[in-house]
Write a structure and sequence with these properties.
By secondary structure, this protein is of the alpha/beta class. Helix content is 22%, strand content 30%.
């Protein structure tokens, strides 16, 4: 059911969280989002769509907005026990104001920290935004899918939140058939499958293929297709609606083609697979690599993640010309 929610994203990655909300919420049917701060959004959506956000910290059913904390005295809460939490990254309000807020909300006899029916979240930005946070409205569980938590992993595996973001970036239709042509241990495909997409992965290394199958099964994915396949020799059969992949870099021992050949032929093969207007979301370590795609794709969006001094990941949405 579509309702108004307050969505709190993780902070200090505003370029990512803004695009995450836009792709996941704004581009979905009936979705709408208004930025209240660099981490806080008022959205119109259903819970299922909100839970697909890559950088979701928590969310709450939106109740109202007020100018000053004193106006809480006129706010009516649902029946039940509760407590108040203030989220104020400017640091001008804290625990003493939480106590005051509880009193203003007529919490006498209803305050419970151990067994609340709900939590009142008060976000302080330009105004006060009041939300009802229930137990089933929690942050995502991507930490459980980090590389060390998988049966098979490699040190270069992408963080699940960023893998999830890469999938969201494509705003693919529900049930789309997605391909990762360089799937590695399938970190990206795990996130795609968790969102309900049909997933296929190729890798040239047999160990990766076996490990990917184990990982997908471990996380409860029942339908998938993981193949030992050189993507550059693949004969397209028109079965894919989108591509999501982290192009190989920093793993030269696993590459069977030189760098330039891999990108040039990889871009061409991607264009053979996708119909005009279809999208590919890729990650690469050098911005100049984008030129390999210019002939076949329109560059629609780039978001950059600085890993360390010598590595910046570029998350790129491509649209087939």
């Amino acid at each position: 059911m579509v309702q108004d929610f307050l969505v709190e994203q993780f902070r200090d990655i505003s370029d990512f969280t803004e695009e995450d909300v836009r792709s996941t919420i704004c581009l979905s049917e009936q979705g709408f989002a208004d930025s209240l701060d660099d981490y806080l959004y008022l959205v119109k959506s259903d819970e299922a769509q909100i839970r697909k956000l890559a950088f979701l910290k928590r969310y709450a059913r939106f109740l109202c907005e007020i100018e000053t904390i004193d106006q809480l005295a006129g706010v009516t809460l649902p029946d039940g026990r509760f407590y108040v939490r203030i989220v104020d990254h400017n640091g001008c309000h804290g625990t003493e104001d939480e106590k005051l807020a509880g009193q203003l909300l007529k919490g006498k006899g209803r305050i419970s920290f151990s067994e609340p029916d709900f939590v009142v979240l008060l976000y302080h930005a330009d105004k006060w935004y009041v939300g009802i946070h229930k137990e089933n409205m929690t942050h995502d569980d991507s930490n459980d899918r980090r590389a060390p938590m998988r049966p098979y992993f490699t040190p270069v595996s992408m963080d699940p939140r960023y893998a999830s973001f890469l999938v969201n970036m494509g705003y693919f239709k529900a049930g789309s058939r997605l391909l990762d042509p360089f799937c590695g241990s399938s970190g990206i495909l795990i996130e795609a499958a968790m969102k309900g997409y049909s997933v296929t992965g190729f890798d040239i290394v047999n160990e990766m293929v076996v490990g990917s199958r184990v990982n997908l099964k471990f996380f409860g994915v029942k339908e998938f297709d993981i193949r030992r396949q050189d993507f550059l020799t693949y004969e397209p059969d028109g079965t894919f609606d989108g591509i999501v992949t982290d192009f190989p870099y920093g793993r030269s021992s696993k590459m069977t083609h030189d760098f330039e050949h891999l990108y040039r032929e990889g871009a061409k093969k991607m264009a053979e697979i996708l119909l005009p207007g279809y999208r590919a979301c890729i990650v690469t370590d050098r911005e100049e690599n984008i030129t390999y795609f210019d002939e076949y794709f329109r560059i629609d969006k780039i978001v950059r993640q600085r890993i360390h001094r010598s590595l910046t990941r570029h998350f790129i949405r491509l649209i087939r010309k």
